[in-house]
Amino acid sequence: MTSFLQTYRVGGLLVASLALAACGGREGDDYCLNHYLTHSDHQAGIATLFVDVSDHGTMTASFAYPAESFVNESERRNELIEALSDPQHVYSIPDRDDCNHLDPAVSDRDGNLVAEYESQCGQVAEIKRVTVTILESVAEIEEVEVTINTPATSKHFAISRQCSAPIFRLKRH
User: Fold this and answer.
1) Are 62 and 49 in contact (CB under 8 A)?
2) Alpha carbon distance 39, 151 (integer Å)
């Protein structure tokens, strides 16, 4: 009888512990899981990255970030423009060393710092992966909304410093 009670108590404690762990968690968990509830409220103030990949190895990308973030910080703004001049600070194409990055165009447009990129990665080879690196390069950016279109698929998600994984649900349904 004693072993049954000990097993029951241990089992009950285990269930209670799991329930508390499920309710507790990291502070950002609610933000990440329920991001779709507030995303539209701050969407105008975050960075965006649009990527189009052709089946012939050409990739074009457009990155935008609200310039108002640097209204009183012209030196930091210039540093960001310099960083955006190197596509490796915005994205990388893993497993591809044959890519030729054409000169990017960085400008102020409609209240945003905008950078446009083109990469040529061979005529017959497809680009299979694109890694977003901007959060590693620019400390001020908290979140970037990403759209990637390829001949096979289209992905739309956000990457936030507060979340350990991309956020795929951005709108209320």
Assistant:
1) yes
2) 28
